[in-house]
UniProtKB/TrEMBL annotation:
Name of the protein in its database record: Luciferase-like domain-containing protein
Family annotation (PANTHER family): CONSERVED HYPOTHETICAL ALANINE AND PROLINE-RICH PROTEIN (PTHR43244:SF2), PTHR43244
Domain Luciferase-like: 19-236
Gene3D superfamilies: Luciferase-like domain
Single annotated GO MF: oxidoreductase activity, acting on paired donors, with incorporation or reduction of molecular oxygen
Organism of derivation: marine metagenome
């Protein structure tokens, strides 16, 4: 078992380079940054992390995770750099592919791509995402990203993203790409992981939940012809 550290909020009040270098010195395996580019003032969505459903004011104070991790990268040499999570439906995959590959390259292959679909409808829609079909959009984006990361000339033709042959360099340092950890507790999340991901990134789960899910992941991995040992579980909280 390895242990990482998540940044406190408001994130901009903590120097990312200092935080990461100190965490590396203390032996932490990874450092994680979350993402919310904006927080709409008027919402009806309930925050899933509390009984009253009130969205914490700190959620409007998230630093951009990729810029924070880039700063952390320059001050460290071993600690892994992770997003927990990147809101994939809110980012264009052509830009996201470049961002991820550049960070992974400059950090020496230390990036972990924690991703999710989002829970805040108003934010997702404001940023151009299809909230009601956000997993379908996310899966399409991940498939497009993999094309861009692994091919010298990549193209993709889908419902949400459609682009002709393009060249996108640099490629990630990790081959074929940084590990994709999929967050969430949706009914089909484990199947989604073995289809297009490399690990599960849940929060607020019990040891029994983890044990049961581990067995299910192992079984699904075998069904999909994947090595169960390559599918990870990372508890995020």
């Amino acid at each position: 078992m390895t242990i990482g550290i998540s940044t406190p909020l408001p994130a901009y009040k903590v120097n990312a380079a200092f935080m990461a270098s100190k965490a590396e010195l203390l032996g932490f395996e990874s450092i994680w940054y979350a993402e919310h580019p904006v927080l709409p003032v008027n919402t009806t969505s309930r925050f899933p992390g509390s009984e009253d459903g009130v969205i914490p004011w700190t959620y409007s104070h998230f630093a951009d995770p990729f810029i924070a991790l880039a700063q952390a990268s320059g001050a460290t040499s071993k600690i892994k750099l992770a997003t927990g999570i990147t809101l994939v439906p809110e980012r264009n995959p052509l830009v996201l592919a470049k961002t991820v590959s550049t960070l992974d390259l400059f950090s020496g292959g230390r990036f972990i791509f924690g991703i999710g679909t989002g829970w805040l409808r108003e934010e997702t829609e404001l940023m151009g995402g299809d909230f009601d079909h956000r997993w379908t959009q996310t899966k399409e984006s991940l498939l497009a990203l993999k094309e861009l990361w692994t091919k010298d000339e990549a193209e993709f033709h889908g419902k949400y993203y459609d682009f002709p042959p393009v060249r996108m360099f640099p490629k990630p340092a990790q081959n074929p790409h940084p590990p994709i950890l999929i967050g969430g507790m949706a009914k089909n999340v484990l199947r989604r992981i073995v289809e297009v991901g490399d690990g599960w990134l849940p929060n607020r789960v019990t040891p029994r939940d983890v044990e049961t899910s581990r067995h299910e992941l192992d079984s699904l991995a075998k069904d999909y012809g994947r090595n169960p040992n390559e599918i990870t579980i990372t508890i995020y909280g």
